[in-house]
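Researcher: Last one for today. Full complex below.
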Amino acid sequence: MRLEFSGSPEIAASPEQIWERLLDPNFVASVAPGVESVETVDERHYRVVSEVGVGSVRMRFQLDVELSEVVPPKSLKLSARGRAPGSNIEVNFALEIEHVAPSHPRLKWGATSEVRGTVASVGARLLKGTAKKLTESFWDRFAERVVQASK
Amino acid sequence: MATLFGSGIKRREDPRLITGTATYTDDVKLPGLLYAAVLRSSYAHAKLTSVDVARAKRAPGVVAVYTGADLKDKLNTVPCAWNVPNCDLKVPPHPVLATDKVRYAGDGIAMVVAESRAAARDALDLIDVDYAALDAVVDPEKATQKGAPQLHADVPGNVAFTWKVAGGDAAKAFAEAAVTVEQRILHNRLLPTAMEARAACASYNPGTGQLTCWVTSQNPHIHRFLLSVMTKLPEHRIRVIAPEVGGGFGSKIPGYPDEALVCFASMDLGRPVKWTEDRSENYKVTIHGRDHVEYVSLCGTKDGKITGLRTRVYAGLGGYASTAAPGIPTILHGLILSGPYTIPNIDVTVYGVYTTTTPVDAYRGAGRPEATFLLERMIDLYARKIGIDPVEVRRKNLIPKDKFPYTVATGLTYDSGNYQGALDKALSLVDYKKFRAEQAKARKEGRYLGIGVTTYCEVCGLGPSQVAGAVGFGGGLYDSALVRVYPTGVVRAYIGAKPHGQGEETTFAQIVADEFGVPVENVEVVAGDTETTPQGWGTYGSRTTAVCGSAVKVAAQRVKEKAKKIAAHLLEASEADLEWKDGKFSVKGSPDKGKSFAELALMANVAWNMPTGVEPGLEATAFFDPSNFVYPFGTHACTVEVDPETGETKILRYVAVDDCGPQINPMIVQGQVHGGVIQGIGEALQEMAVYDEDGQLLTGTMMDYAIPRASQMPNVETAHTVTPSPVNPLGVKGVGETGTIASVPTLVNAVCDALAPLGVTHIDKPLTPARVWAAIQQAKGGKR
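Model: Here's the assembly. Have a good evening.
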């Protein structure tokens, strides 16, 4: 099942501050819902374990995450491939930091993901809503923490 | 004694079924039993780059893990058993577990066998599979187009077969026709949803070399054969037992990989092994139904005489050819496209197409609901175009009752019928004229009432074995009964078919008890065990009563003939002087000195005083092979009101007049009609298996797949006419599928009729409120 999301939150911090946080795997993991562990393979590759619940289905995904086309402090791409029992997921994510006003940039991002297996067939009705909620929650917490730290 | 034939006695099956004392396959418990679970592909189409089972093998409680590579040389591939001729059928190998590639989301990849069900399931999570994704294709028409993903190496364009049937000269008919109507018709993919999902339990005895397999089967003898093919074990060493089977609707006809896998595991491990599907697995791997895209044209005169019908069909087969799949959109669909009408020119082309979806096979009605739907839909479109009442158009084209046996343009010869009789009865019951007046009045008030009237006939009671052979069906279609009379005069009838909800334990007992003049309680009907029942071909295609019931009748007659010989001997009379009256053979004129059936049963079984040349015992076997199919028919009528604001359809009345010949048990006939109609209403209004573009089944649970609920269903008013069939000794026709066949077009035509003032001509089923509302908006926008 294909899911497409995008957003453009504005965050009251400098692009450099945001960038630093974005590239800090432990920080990202601390604000991302469900992430249990992040293992750094090298500065562009990570192994992530994350638990996701969709409706009655709860499963632990093991994800291989790769960063590419990293242009500090402007843009990056991220791809993730992962599996959980009976399910597979692929995510492609792109982000660009746009200058709107000084110390108040906009993060323009877009993601497509392909979900296969149990999560798709059992959770199809709820998948989109759940993913939207998790994404919103991630950016809310990300922004909140970045702003706190920059004060 | 009152006759039992025609009596609506209660089903003897029901008390055990509704009190939890019936034994289903999953209830089978054996010492040392192991449990199997199958890892299913999460991709619809992918190469398997690696399957690593090392961690699963080490998991607690796990006894064995098998992959496709392990079994490649040990088990044969899953056979397709309906090799329809003259259509260049291509059946690529269907391995019991995928080896190099998966072709639908649900394709088996590995099987775990463990000490408990939970251990088997948990170990599935420890199998690491690497997939290289390939593009999926779920639409059978798109799958044939250039550039579509290819499922099988030797099946170019994914076209498994191209089948044609033609009668008359359709090209000429269309060229000369005054009126032509065309419509693209979709037959939504359906999930059979039997109350009991599939299960299998195998027990191999290494000492005797015998394999016993309990399996959810509509046809245990066919499963014995299919398991023999897959496991390479000779047929005489396999015993198949189908215990209680909780419905099938066709989904328990085919041979599946899973049953063969548990047999292999039991043979390999020397312990019994059981596998039981859960509902999500059932929706993913047990066969689906329908899934046609059809391009249909119908032509005729301006005054309502149909002169031609053409259709081009793309029939989705799923990832592999299931056991009977090639026969469904061809023999059981293409050949019946004349319906109850005298259509002189018919031209049909069917493409069977592999798609990256769950295999599609027979589902209640199998091919005939699709045929009836398109025909009835086209007739309503035609009637609207020429401005003649759709009922009158039907009446004008029905085969007259004095023309039977009647051969239609596709070559089938219908056995008997009185289509006008059923039509008149239904119109009178629904009060057609009065409804049309109410409808006209309602329209003035801005309310949308509609009526659909379907005149149908269908081909069932499968069928003459010679025809089965000629159309490539990999078996016979006769059926069998062994009627055994015990010394105390009680009777067991062992039958070749396998009822799984249709009530033949009751109706067949009625046939036997009538023949012998004994209480119905004295007759037991036994089915489902290949060790005790004679070779038969199972329960599907509304064949059990017409074919197997006739075998029961013939076997009982043979028993009675022998009893008569013994009676004549004991009464010191000639057989010609005996008469059968009130459950006794007696010499004509001296009714007091008769011999009852029970007395004769005792004398035959003890054999103290047998006539010369007559063997002891009292039993007979019959194999009944009918001379033709049977063609039940009828008229269904339905009235609806559609809410134009919400698109919601409310069924006002549903009237079903069916003719299945003489009814052995009218209550059971009525139950079959009720169930069939409800299932058809589901197909018409709400059921659809939905895949996304990537081949993921999005309706994977009962929360997502909309089977009908009791609260939505109307009171189904049933009535009947009786036209006996000349092709079997009971005169009966089938009634197991007529409800699903007739109800779908009846509903859809009623809704389209209701919305006619808005300019709506056609809506693809299922007619969910969203679709109906969208069609209304589109019509209002003048886009049609």
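Helices of chain A lie at 15-22, 25-31, 118-150. Chain A has one domain: 2-149.
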